[in-house]
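debug: dumping io for the single-chain case to check the tokenizer round-trip. Nothing else runs in this session.
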Amino acid sequence: MCGRFNIIDDKGMQALLQELGFDFNFPTRLNIAPTEPVPVVVLDGQSLAMHEMRWWLTPSWAPEVSTRFSMFNARSETLDTSKAFRGPFRHHRGIMPASSFIEWRRLGDGKQPYLIRPVEGVFTFAAIWDQWEKSDSYIESCAMITTEAVPAMSWLHHRMPVMLPVSDVAEWLDPTTSKGRLLALMAQGLPAELEAVPISTAVNNGRNKAPECVQEEGDPVTITRH
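debug: decoded output
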């Protein structure tokens, strides 16, 4: 599960956007929570485009926009069998750029939030998206794909986002990529060395967007690729 992430306007994120062919930078967004608008990279014809989408997938066939079911994450293991995710997985794949994400580790009767970030660079999370239209309403929405956590991260949580290296972005977005290859891309594990650092519980409140919500409160723990 991944229910919060951050986008930081720094050299790492700027370099990613340039590599993907975009000539703009993101403003910093902290403690991004489900149902909020998030940037998603999609393939528009032969070119990459950046769309703002609601982070909580609403399938095209849904009768209404709802948060009745948890649709901000999509399990990689059931993408091709789930009624809600099957179509987007086949036809609407995307990338969610992120500087870091937040996960909570259960400790006794409470939970300690951790900020997880690459030692170098930024994340390109695998995502799916869909279009919903009814009367005069039109919404593009997305879900972050998750998978079983690698052993080096299992102490923190049993799930993690699917993290793709930038070199795989084009193949992930390509509509002609086979299902077998897509499954292989999602099963690669960590693309780089990560670190997890305990942060303030101020992040627990999704409405808190102040810098204090990512205030570090301990030493980082290195998460190796193997």
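debug: round-trip ok. Helices lie at 11-19, 86-91, 169-173, 179-186.
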